[in-house]
Amino acid sequence: MQSWQLRERAREILAKEVGYVSKPHGGRLRVALAFPNTYFVGMSNLGFQTVYKLFNAENGIVCERVFLPPKTELAAQLASGAPVVTIESQTPVSEFDVFAFSVSFEWDYTNIVTLLRLGGLKPRAVDRTARDPLVVIGGAVTFVNPEPLAPFADVIAAGEGEVLIPSLLTAFNSASDRDDLLRRLAADRGFYVPSFYDVRHSDDGTIEAFVPRPETGAPVVVKKAALKTTDAVDPPATTIFTPDTELGSRFLIEVVRGCANLCRFCWAGYNYLPVRAFPKDRILQLAANARPHSARAGLVSIALCDHPDIEEILTRLVEMGYSISPASLRLDDLTPTLLELLRRSGERTITVAPETGSDRLRRVINKTVTNDEILAAAEMIFASGFDNLKLYFMIGLPTETDDDLVAIHDMTLQIRETMLRHQRGRGHIGRIVGSVNPLVPKPGTTYQWLPMEDDRSIDRKIKRMRSLMGGMDNVYFNIKSERHSFYQALLSLGDRRVAAAIEAAERNGGNWRAAVAETGVDADFFVFRDRSTDKVLPWDIIDGGLKDHFFRSEFDKGLREEWTLPPKRQKENARLLPILQ
Ligand code: SF4
């Protein structure tokens, strides 16, 4: 594709949008903000939209968006050498001061490399110069384990944009040159400058230490930066509306951040603590402002009902004429009032995550609901008139046996009975759609030291699940293959040596098996190794607030099949998890 065609396409995109920001560049810090996937995917990502808004909220910053070209055009664009341009002013990325990435998914890591190349930059920081834009990589995934991306980034943003963006601007305004800028950022909370550290390895391949280079002043660990309170903060919400996106012109809004349930496998739960509700009045005001552009509200929160005013918020959204799609709902949150409100808004499906079929295993993973409560919730859901139920399960959990797999089948059968009982007289029967994923142990969770369950065992369990769940009318199960999870685990659990495989996978079109073989990256070492005696884990360079002794005691409690109950969730959180001190 020629440059003029890229500019033309950007202008066409802009013509269909409402809410983008266009500012003069002069005298401002220029930020090209990339979502490492297509426009279609990226514009439905609330994190990306939020960072765009936060950057542009600063008078001293102009932020414009960049996306990966559609698959059909990618090869031609790479071959033509035409530089990727921003949507707003159709300016090549290389003319910006900062090339920032908002990354939500491990699978997009190869796309970061592609976008750097499309921007005319060398993928590795060590090969770039101070004349290139500063490459800043942030987003949910990177503050959990930034190491596989470390060689590509000048700076990794570890934490929440609300705190980091003003600090980035201050550092730019005060710095005399690139070295000075990096030093200032490294001295600030939440900025990790990978090139300021030597990573020392032991003979067995594990990390012995991250050693800050003496002249840099870099800290021994980088503390995550998070908002102390959301009392006076606007909730993240869609600001740009476009019909050309995955979720259509849906108005997305974050109602409450975090979840206090402390499920032992859940990195989102641990990493967004403490639970912080956004102000009800601001949520409703933003929803009212967005109503002319959208009739559908997507409530993006992992624990929606931890908001103290959730029922009032839903009532008002329904009154405004919104149909409402919640993200998955926590089973212990469901109430008849809540379900009634969702039904009135037109929703036909509820999504919940029992995770497993037995109470015993739910105590191991700290999912604090019982089978009786799940069945009571199913009763409430179908009695409220919902057609369909989506269920999320995991396999490969610690202490899991065949009985636990059978228990998933038995519970689904009982839920199906409930559905049939409520729907038989109505003329049509809904669906139960189950999704089963192997556990990928995640950094920053109780399971961070665990190896992933080995291929053969997971394969056997997948086959077993397929045979258990087949042949039930109105029940459809999607059971993920083991290989998919294996490479995802490599990207989650790896260190900076994995970057070579990311580059190779980018070159060969996503063939991870070949990429790992070609680069000699020992994927099994990262995925299948018990890390419990490792001195340093790759993600220890970031201090997310929760300490090892907490995770270790949670692990032991899990083996004793004990829950850590979250009775008064928000209060308990603040006491247990002082991440903001
Ligand atoms: S309830 Fe859901 S969001 Fe909360 S910690 Fe558990 S899995 Fe994570």
Indicate the topology.
Layout: H1 3-15, E1 29-38, H2 39-42, H3 46-57, E2 61-68, H4 71-80, E3 98-102, H5 109-118, E4 134-138, E5 155-157, H6 161-174, H7 178-187, E6 191-192, E7 197-201, E8 207-212, E9 222-223, E10 251-253, E11 256-257, H8 267-271, E12 276-277, H9 280-290, E13 296-299, H10 310-319, E14 323-326, H11 336-344, E15 349-355, H12 359-365, H13 371-383, E16 388-395, H14 402-423, E17 432-438, H15 455-469, E18 475-479, H16 482-493, H17 499-507, H18 512-519, H19 523-527, E19 542-543, H20 548-559, H21 569-576
Parallel strand pairs: 1-2, 1-3, 3-4, 4-5, 9-19, 10-13, 13-14, 15-16, 16-17, 17-18
Antiparallel strand pairs: 5-6, 7-8, 11-12
Bound molecules: iron/sulfur cluster.
Descriptive report:
The protein is an alpha/beta fold and 581 residues long. Helices cover 38% and strands 15% of the residues. It binds iron/sulfur cluster (SF4).
Care to give the gist of this entry?
Helix content is 38%, strand content 15%. The protein is an alpha/beta fold.
| Small molecules in complex | iron/sulfur cluster
Q: Kindly state the percentage of residues in helix.
A: 25-40%
Outline: globular
Radius of gyration: 24 Å
Number of strands: 19
Quick one: biggest sheet? 6 strands, mixed
Structural class: alpha/beta
**Share of residues in strands:** 15-25%
- Biggest sheet: strand arrangement: 2-1-3-4-5-6
Low-confidence stretches: 575-581
Structure annotation, total helices: 21
Mean pLDDT: 92
